[in-house]
Amino acid sequence: MLIIPYNTSSLMPIIIHLDDIMSQRKVSLSELSNMVGITLSNLSIIKNGKCRAIRLHTLSAICKALDCQPGDILEYTDQPVLARGKAIAT
Fold it and tell me: How many angstroms separate the Cα of 8 from the Cα of each of 14, 31, 44, 50, 64?
Protein backbone atom coordinates (compact mmCIF):
# COMPACT_ATOMS: atom_id res chain seq x y z
CA MET A 1 0.00 0.00 0.00
CA LEU A 2 1.30 3.44 -0.93
CA ILE A 3 0.06 6.77 0.39
CA ILE A 4 -0.11 9.71 -2.00
CA PRO A 5 -1.13 13.11 -0.68
CA TYR A 6 -2.96 14.94 -3.46
CA ASN A 7 -1.19 18.12 -2.42
CA THR A 8 1.62 18.81 0.00
CA SER A 9 -0.53 20.57 2.60
CA SER A 10 -3.23 17.91 2.56
CA LEU A 11 -3.96 15.37 5.26
CA MET A 12 -6.46 13.64 2.95
CA PRO A 13 -4.44 11.25 0.80
CA ILE A 14 -5.20 8.80 -1.93
CA ILE A 15 -3.98 5.33 -1.02
CA ILE A 16 -2.68 3.23 -3.94
CA HIS A 17 -3.08 -0.54 -3.63
CA LEU A 18 -1.64 -1.46 -7.05
CA ASP A 19 1.30 -3.33 -5.51
CA ASP A 20 -1.08 -5.38 -3.33
CA ILE A 21 -3.35 -6.28 -6.26
CA MET A 22 -0.37 -7.22 -8.44
CA SER A 23 0.96 -9.43 -5.66
CA GLN A 24 -2.42 -11.13 -5.17
CA ARG A 25 -2.66 -11.79 -8.91
CA LYS A 26 1.02 -12.84 -9.11
CA VAL A 27 1.64 -10.33 -11.91
CA SER A 28 5.01 -8.62 -12.25
CA LEU A 29 5.46 -5.00 -13.23
CA SER A 30 6.86 -5.96 -16.63
CA GLU A 31 3.98 -8.40 -17.27
CA LEU A 32 1.42 -5.74 -16.36
CA SER A 33 3.25 -3.21 -18.53
CA ASN A 34 2.93 -5.54 -21.53
CA MET A 35 -0.73 -6.34 -20.77
CA VAL A 36 -1.70 -2.68 -20.37
CA GLY A 37 0.43 -1.32 -23.20
CA ILE A 38 2.29 1.39 -21.29
CA THR A 39 5.99 1.65 -20.65
CA LEU A 40 7.53 -0.02 -17.65
CA SER A 41 8.76 3.36 -16.40
CA ASN A 42 5.30 4.96 -16.62
CA LEU A 43 3.68 2.03 -14.83
CA SER A 44 6.38 2.20 -12.16
CA ILE A 45 5.61 5.91 -11.66
CA ILE A 46 1.95 5.05 -11.11
CA LYS A 47 2.75 2.14 -8.78
CA ASN A 48 5.17 4.21 -6.71
CA GLY A 49 2.76 7.12 -6.42
CA LYS A 50 4.88 9.61 -8.29
CA CYS A 51 2.21 10.42 -10.86
CA ARG A 52 0.09 13.52 -10.45
CA ALA A 53 -2.75 12.11 -12.54
CA ILE A 54 -3.83 8.93 -14.30
CA ARG A 55 -5.90 8.77 -17.46
CA LEU A 56 -9.16 6.88 -17.17
CA HIS A 57 -8.14 4.86 -20.21
CA THR A 58 -4.98 3.72 -18.39
CA LEU A 59 -6.87 2.96 -15.18
CA SER A 60 -9.42 0.99 -17.19
CA ALA A 61 -6.67 -1.03 -18.90
CA ILE A 62 -5.02 -1.80 -15.55
CA CYS A 63 -8.36 -2.91 -14.09
CA LYS A 64 -9.05 -5.12 -17.10
CA ALA A 65 -5.60 -6.71 -16.93
CA LEU A 66 -5.85 -7.36 -13.18
CA ASP A 67 -9.58 -8.23 -13.21
CA CYS A 68 -10.41 -5.65 -10.57
CA GLN A 69 -12.30 -2.41 -10.01
CA PRO A 70 -10.80 1.10 -9.71
CA GLY A 71 -11.76 1.08 -6.03
CA ASP A 72 -9.57 -1.98 -5.52
CA ILE A 73 -6.57 0.08 -6.66
CA LEU A 74 -7.40 3.57 -5.37
CA GLU A 75 -8.74 4.47 -1.95
CA TYR A 76 -9.58 7.92 -0.63
CA THR A 77 -9.44 8.59 3.08
CA ASP A 78 -10.21 11.74 5.00
CA GLN A 79 -8.24 10.50 8.00
CA PRO A 80 -4.71 11.76 8.66
CA VAL A 81 -2.29 9.04 7.60
CA LEU A 82 1.34 8.35 8.38
CA ALA A 83 3.65 6.88 5.75
CA ARG A 84 2.83 3.38 4.52
CA GLY A 85 -0.82 3.38 5.51
CA LYS A 86 -0.81 3.73 9.29
CA ALA A 87 -3.87 5.76 10.25
CA ILE A 88 -3.56 8.32 13.02
CA ALA A 89 -6.28 8.01 15.66
CA THR A 90 -8.23 11.25 16.00
Answer: 12, 32, 21, 13, 31
Q: Is 76 left (phi over 0), alpha (psi -120 to 50) or beta?
A: beta
User: How far is Cα of residue 8 from the mean position of the Cα atoms in its chain?
Assistant: 18
- Does 25 reside within a domain? yes
Q: Could you read off the pLDDT of 36-49 as tens digits, one per residue?
A: 999 999 999 999 88
The domain of 16 spans 2-85
Q: Is residue 12 in a domain?
A: yes
- The candidate with the shortest Cα–Cα distance to 14, out of 42, 68, 51, is 51
- pTM strictly above 0.85: no
